[in-house]
Amino acid sequence: MGRVACAALQGADDLEYVGGLVRALDGAQQEPLYDDLQILLDETKPDVLLDLSVYPSSVDIAMDALRRGVRPVIGATGWSDFDRTALAREADERKIGAMLVPNFSVGAALMLRFAAEASRFFPTIEIIELHHDGKKDKPSGTALLTKQRIEAGSRNGDIPIHSVRLRGLVAHQEVLLGNDGEVLTIRHDSLSREAFVPGMIAAVRAVTKLDHLVVGSDVLLDAEAAPSA
User: Is 135 a known active-site residue?
Assistant: First the structure.
């Protein structure tokens, strides 16, 4: 995903890619890469840091960025409520934007919005999320955010989430809504990592206009920087 993100950022006319963070440097690598976050921040002085690492290291990366006045856009999932609260407090204190985005794809953002709207009309709801067998967190961040949005805006109680980890999958989710005599299924499928690129670029643009933490890519649907196909 990091390679896909680097290529996308380098291809965006209005953005300047200044460097990437890797676990270990390889002499054959041509682009500006660093294996130390502090050196990267010191030498490149970025406006935005796009974090596609894994939890819990992503917490340290995002907090370090905020403390240096750099706006983090976080694609890693697995964050706890405590972590999110700490990140929100840091962003508020420094009055700079931050985004925590479990899923950058446009379709997933729409699925989240459709499910929240439909949930007001259905008394029973369950979520099924399916991902590749290398995904470490379970349930997925997208499923947890969907659950939170539905529970916040409807009369439904604790909504079950079913997780599947299977080789051959990428990222998929179904929201099943049931009522007497009918079932509504809202499903989204990400078939390749390129599906995340438009939302990722939109988030990098949008975070510069924020002064607080925003959770979820669905907020981009109404923003001026909303991704286009």
Answer: yes
- pTM value is 0.84
Q: Catalytic pick from 45, 95, 132, 135?
A: 135
Give the other-Cβ count within 10 Å of 15's Cβ: 15
The residues that bridge with 164 in the sheet, in sequence order, are 130
Q: Which of 45, 95, 131, 209 is catalytic?
A: 131
Range(s) for CATH 3.30.360.10 in the chain?
A: 106-191
Q: Of all helices (H) and strands (E), which one includes residue 21? A: strand 20-21
Q: How far is CA 6 from the centre of its chain?
A: 16
pLDDT tens track for 111-140: 999 999 999 999 999 999 999 999 888 999
CATH of domain 106-191: 3.30.360.10
pLDDT tens per residue across span 72-105:
999 988 899 999 999 999 999 999 999 999 899 9
* Level-2 CATH architecture, domain 2-100+196-222: 3-Layer(aba) Sandwich (3.40)
